[in-house]
Specification:
- The complex is a heterodimer of chains A (about 400) and B (about 400).
- Chain A contains 16 helices and 14 strands.
- Chain A has about 400 residues and is an alpha+beta fold.
- In chain A, strands 3-4-9-6-8-7 form a six-stranded mixed beta barrel, surrounded by four helices. Chain A has a two-stranded antiparallel sheet with strand order 2-10. In chain A, strands 13-14 form a two-stranded antiparallel sheet.
- In chain A, a hairpin with a 4-residue loop joins β3 and β4.
- In chain A, α1 crosses α12, α11 runs antiparallel to α16 and α12 runs antiparallel to α14.
- Chain A is elongated and about 100 Å long.
- Chain B is of the alpha+beta class.
- Helices cover about 55% and strands about 20% of the residues of chain B.
- Chain B contains 16 helices and 14 strands.
- In chain B, the strands form three sheets. In chain B, strands 3-4-9-6-8-7 form a six-stranded mixed beta barrel, surrounded by four helices.
- Chains A and B meet through α2, β3, β4, β7 and α10 of A and α2, β3, β4, β7 and α11 of B.
């Protein structure tokens, strides 16, 4: 009954309703669009770094994270592997032996990260083979190096050439080796592109003089949400004085911080936008209350409870907000969906733009994220705003003097 | 006459007028704040990049810029160096030898770029000596001193007076190594730069490379950045066979950021103005519709359409004007205060240093922007007045009077 009244009331002044609806729809459309792009871009970037390299969680020797050196490597045993694989949620374990090295081509050098990996396990975790652009992924009998395109450019080499790696091995032994380049890798993350060189684990162990050792064990976990559970289990099954278990958020804290900061900046814009729209809605409410004070007077005069009247008005405002929200979401959905399938390509902005994004470790594309939570939150915000604004007519109604109100009108 | 009527009209519905004025004030204030924040952030990034690594002008061999090979160096003779340093408006000229290398301690190794510098000249250009957090700057004494960033030192597990080994290829592609002693640790606040660069005396690295006059880069810092183009020209005549570029050419991303300010300002403005437009149209339309009868009467007694139209537009304009002045004052006051105190973003952790930005932001804004903003807000108000005013002149006096 009250609802029907409220519904009819908002259509009594169609033009005003439409303007109010449009302003709410605009705010919701814009807010959900902006957040979808912002969250999408960051998730894409974090996923690039996490999925293509770190993995959602890692096991390391305690102390390795603070001092990333071969001397802090752990001994990789079948027992340890068994223990990890028995953990619920862990699909696969990819052991890695990694350290920095100077890579040399014919007459150019660059600093690289040499990673010794188990070809099969690594491929299952990071889909390394899908990043091969030239040459091929290691067969069962693996030898030779897989080198990222950025490194290839920097040292001026091509497939089939030999790359020279100079470094310091386990306990400071000299490490020098020459490896044929059997495959070229291209990553989304410019940062990985510029420094990755992969070797099969056996060759890396010989190269660094670290037989049977690994610096990190990357765990293959299906979903982000399972990470806390896996970490909790491992903290009980593993000896934590010997091993450290790290989740992805701990491994890239700066990026997680930067994401928060960027989100904070966007939220500021959205807060201002919603505030301005609130002023607009308030203008509507003000008018609605004023021009209907006669009607309110009559209604209370003939015995309608003030709370009933209050609820009707609140429902009206709520309906305006809700309809506006729905309209805004309906406008934003197709656009966001389209941009999810066809990410915005920033390379049209020119070479300089691409370079800038690379400098920040980002691929110059912005895929949108289609997350129902984003849309849901806009509805919550609008609900919150309209409820607060409805306090005004509510207050007016509760102080209403029927006789005076009817005279005024 | 029309002005007086319009002015009085807006005070007939005081609360409504104040709501609209409030919305516009908020919009203006928010725009001033957001844009000054962006300008402050970008400007400090650009200034930092110029001050800590790039300088205003750089000189290289043509081919070094395409491919940073060790072999693409030029010889810098002392008299040319003197001549360049003496150019008017130049605070300092820093010659650098740049070599890709691996730095190793007993515990760890990292890939870095060696920056072989002349301690005195570098001090004038990048104020490297001001950025030390422990130890001392280069002195004349000591064999092979080296400065590392504190971040790199932590990774290598070395301290002041520890020894590190630099390994690199010399001009004949032979692997060469030299032992260096850490004399000091620096911190520029730019994490990628800090982790990737070590400083040694140019004389030391050149001796290891066997080329005393070897220089890959000259970096200039100007007292007077206004004279950039002029000094660039003078440098070109002194060094005709070399490539002389300003910081925008050296780091195109800096130029992009400077351009980015305008882009993001435009985006912010469009969003806020659109939101304001809804409010203005809504309010004025109401003002027109509730005065239907009155407007009908005015037209019946002979007020022509042009005047009615003008009156509505004037009312809107006054509303905007009443908002622009306090809005701009509020925004300006905020910028003045924050420009002095700065905004500390360290609550968001180290996210910014990852991107080479400082966590303190000092908002700033040129005065021209305030004028621009005032014009745009007034324009938006006029735009918002058009529809309501058009509705007003379309009414038929007789019907309007009959309507309650």
């Amino acid at each position: 009954m009250l609802f029907t009244m409220a519904w009819r009331n908002i259509w009594r002044n169609k033009r005003r309703t439409f303007i109010t609806l449009a302003s709410v729809a605009f705010a919701v459309f814009f807010a959900s669009f902006m957040q979808s792009i912002q969250k999408g871009a960051w998730d894409h970037m974090l996923d690039n770094v996490v999925n293509f390299y770190y993995g959602y969680a890692q096991v390391q020797k305690a102390g390795y994270w603070e001092e990333q050196s071969l001397d802090q490597a752990l001994i990789w045993t079948p027992e340890l592997e068994q223990k990890l694989l028995q953990t619920e949620g862990v699909q696969q374990v990819a052991p890695r032996l990694e350290s920095f090295a100077l890579a040399a081509g014919a007459d150019l050098t660059t600093g690289v990260l040499v990673v010794g990996v188990s070809p099969e396990a690594e491929n299952q975790l990071t889909k390394l083979s899908e990043h091969i652009t030239e040459g091929r992924y290691w067969p069962a009998e693996a030898h030779g190096a897989l080198v990222a395109t950025g490194v290839m450019e920097r040292i001026g080499m091509s497939l089939g050439d030999s790359i020279i790696l100079l470094s310091q091995g386990y306990h400071g032994v000299n490490a020098a080796g020459k490896y044929p380049i059997v495959g070229i890798l291209k990553f989304g993350s410019p940062d990985l592109n510029k420094r990755m060189v992969y070797l099969p684990r056996q060759e890396a162990e010989q190269y660094f003089g670290a037989e049977g050792m690994a610096t990190t064990l990357a765990l293959d976990i299906d979903r982000k949400e399972e990470v806390p559970g896996v970490i909790r289990q491992l903290n009980t099954t593993l000896d934590t004085s010997q091993f450290a278990i790290l989740g992805w958020e701990e491994m890239i804290p700066d990026l997680v911080d930067a994401k928060e900061l960027d989100a904070a900046g966007n939220n500021l814009v959205l807060i201002v936008l919603y505030l301005i729209i609130s002023f607009g809605i308030f203008g509507t409410i003000l008018m609605m209350t004023r021009e209907r004070s006669y009607e309110f007077g009559v209604l209370t005069g003939i015995g309608m409870h003030r709370w009933q009247l209050g609820i009707t008005v609140w429902l009206e405002i709520m309906l305006l907000g809700l309809l506006g929200t729905i309209a805004g979401i309906l406008l934003a959905l197709p656009l966001v969906y389209y941009l999810k399938l066809n990410p915005i390509d920033l390379s049209v902005m020119g070479e300089a733009a691409v370079e800038t994004y690379e400098k920040f470790g980002m691929e110059p594309i912005l895929p949108a994220l289609l997350d129902p939570a984003i849309f849901f939150w806009q509805a919550v915000i609008v609900f919150f705003i309209t409820t607060i604004l409805a306090l005004y007519p509510w207050w007016k109604i509760s102080n209403l003097q029927p006789i005076a109100a009817m005279r005024e009108g | 006459m029309l002005t007086t009527i319009a002015w009085r009209n807006i005070w007939r519905s005081r609360t409504r007028s104040l709501v609209v004025i409030g919305a516009i004030v908020l919009g203006i204030w928010a725009l001033v704040f957001m844009i000054s924040f962006t300008v402050g952030m970008v400007q400090s990034y650009v200034d930092d990049a110029i001050a800590t690594s790039i300088g205003h002008l750089q000189v290289h061999q043509d081919s070094f810029r395409e491919e940073p090979k060790l072999a693409y160096y030029f010889d810098l003779d002392p008299s040319t160096f003197q001549e360049l340093s003496a150019l008017e408006g130049v605070r300092g000229v820093a010659p650098r030898t740049l070599v890709n290398a691996m730095v190793g301690s007993t515990r760890n190794t990292r890939g870095v770029q060696i920056r072989g510098i002349d301690p005195e000249a570098e001090r004038l250009v990048t104020e490297l000596d001001q950025r030390l957090v422990s130890g001392d700057y280069f002195s004349e004494e000591g064999r092979n001193p080296i400065l590392l960033s504190s971040a790199l030192a932590a990774k290598l597990k070395v301290k002041v007076r520890s020894k590190v080994v630099l390994t690199f290829q010399d001009l004949n592609h032979d692997i060469t190594a030299g032992a260096f002693r850490v004399v000091g640790l620096y911190d520029t606040g730019n994490k990628p730069f800090d982790e990737g660069n070590v400083f040694v005396r140019r004389a030391d690295i050149n001796r290891l490379l066997g080329e005393d006059a070897m220089t890959h880069e000259l970096s200039f810092f100007l007292d007077d950045p206004q004279r950039l183009a002029e000094i660039q020209g003078e440098t070109k005549t002194i060094l005709p066979e070399l490539l002389v570029e300003d910081y925008r050419e050296v780091a195109p991303d800096l130029q992009l950021y400077e351009g980015q300010i305008q882009t993001s300002a435009t985006i912010f403005m469009t969003i806020i103005m659109l939101a304001l437009l809804f409010g203005i149209v809504n309010t004025m339309l109401m003002a027109v519709l509730e005065r239907y009868r009155e407007l009908g009467m005015l037209m019946a007694v002979g007020m022509n359409k042009g005047r009615v139209f003008g009156m509505i537009v004037l009312e809107t304009f006054f509303l905007a004007l009443l908002a622009i002045i306090p809005g701009l004052l509020l925004g300006w006051g905020t910028v003045v205060i924050l420009a002095k105190r700065g905004i500390d973003l360290s609550v968001f952790g180290n996210g910014l240093s990852q991107f080479g930005m400082s966590h303190m932001v000092y908002p700033q804004l040129q005065s021209g922007f305030y004028v621009q903003l005032a014009v745009i807000v007034a324009g938006t108000a006029l735009l918002g007045a058009l529809y309501p005013a058009w509705r007003a002149i379309r009414l038929r006096p007789v019907e309007a009077i009959r309507k309650i």
